[in-house]
Amino acid sequence: MRSRLRTCAGTTAAFAVAFTAFGATPVWADPVVEDRPPVSEQFAPGSPSGTDPRGRDGEAEGRVPDVSDVSELRRDAYVAPFREARSVEYFAVAPRGLPREAVSAVRGIDGVESVLTVDAARVEIDGEPTSVLGVNPSSFRNHAPEPSAESDRIWQGVAEGHIALSNDVGTERGLEVGSEITVAGGRGEVPLEVWTHATSGIVGIDALVSRERAAGLGMPKGNALVVSAPDTDLWELHEALAEALGEDVSLQLVADASEPLVSGEAVAPSVVEQVIANAESQLGVPYVWGGTTPGAGFDCSGLLQWAFREAGVSIPRVTHDQWNAGQRVDFDDIQRGDLLFWRTDPTAPDYISHVAIYLGEGMMLEAPRTGLDVRVTPVRTGNYAGAVRVNT
Questions:
Q1: Residue in 162, 197, 320, 354 annotated catalytic
Q2: 172 an active-site residue?
Q3: Which of 16, 84, 97, 236 sits at a 20 to 30 Å CA gap from 370?
Q4: Whole-angstrom distance, CA of residue 268 vs CA of residue 23
Q5: What's the CA gap between 350 and 345, in Å, rounded?
Q6: In this structure, are 106 and 208 located in the same domain?
Q7: Closest of 158, 120, 118 to residue 33, by C-alpha
Q8: Which candidate in 300, 310, 320, 361 is catalytic?
Q9: Catalytic site residue 320?
């Protein structure tokens, strides 16, 4: 079994996953997903992940996302019907449009079944930096999470120039379906209607627009790829993608690996206690979407990244990466300091969307959601996905 690779400093590396569209020419900006680990550390153990500790199905029940007023649809943009569900193994993004030769090289990699060219940028939505993809609805829908993939209404609205927000951004920021928001890109501000709340399935991406709309916003053209290669070895695929695309392209693992890449030892009990003490020092601090500031506001994964970092341990920034960054443990074997995960997004039932830290004796600490403060609460079993033990 391969060993998990580290950076020279032994810490996680930052993967710049998309870039800003502010200004005349897009340039690199802060990463969409901060402190992304080396790809070798994004791999997750291959044990089944969706089993509830009480024997129920651990995945959230899917729900077809609501859309705005369908009577407004002009039906003047063609959207192909849903054809077949396709997986997403990797998301790749570059500072500018990718050369045709590089895209062709990716398509020629053994095991690659589908490669979508998309546009990726960091723009402002109602004043908040938000990661956006410009997609072809006819092709991207086949890679979207169920149940939104099969909804013709969702993709027709995107094709006609509306914006689809992730369930998280839409609900936590109060951007309701049917409301008008302001999107500020490299070519100024554009008012757009929130057509639906439908999570993309790619961590860190919180909005979808058509590629035509992306061009109007000044987003870079063809700077990102969605790669489907369901039967490949993910580490070998990473090496092939890196060779085909070059060092300027960042690779984000989207899938769970079929085998763990194990190295390191569990965080020492004394350090676990320090982590928990750090987290407990934030009890009563409000939940803030995207929050990472002690005393001011945290989201669920931001709180835990901060608590570990203050104890000298580096873990990824977002929930999906925290899920994919450690050794998973059975519910009956969880220990104080383990991370607990849930699948709570009804628009993307397979998506890891919440994390808490286990305190022992059936209790956990979490930053739950907008309107609630950091708190200690009994462990919930509904939609439970699994647990991860952090290694040094």
A1: 354
A2: no
A3: 16
A4: 47
A5: 8
A6: yes
A7: 120
A8: 300
A9: no
Catalytic residue, candidates 34, 89, 160, 366: 366
**Of 309, 371, 330, 312, nearest in space to 34 by CA:** 309
With the C-alpha atoms ordered 155, 215, 242, 27, is the resulting torsion angle positive or negative? negative
Q: Is 162 a catalytic residue?
A: no
Spans of the chain, pLDDT less than 70: 1-62, 257-263
pLDDT of residue 253: 85
The span from the CA of 209 to the CA of 119, in Å, is 9
What DSSP string describes 345-380? -TTSTT---EEEEEEETTEEEE--STT-BSEEEEPP
Number of domains in the chain: 2
Q: Which of residues 253, 282, 302 is at a domain's end?
A: 253
Structure tokens belonging to residue 171? 């609900």
Do 239 and 376 fall within a single domain?
A: no
The tens digit of pLDDT for each residue in 266-278 reads 899 999 999 999 9
Distance CA 82, CA 79 (A): 9
User: What is the SS3 assignment for 276?
Assistant: helix
3-state secondary structure at position 115: strand
Give the pLDDT confidence score for residue 327 in this predicted structure: 85
* Domain containing residue 228: 39-55+64-253
The residue out of 203, 223, 253 marking a domain boundary is 253
How large a percentage of the chain has pLDDT more than 70?
82
* Stated length of the chain: 392
Q: Is the same domain home to 226 and 286?
A: no
At residue 86, what is the residue type?
A: R
Q: Kindly state whether residue 283 falls inside one of the protein's structural domains.
A: yes
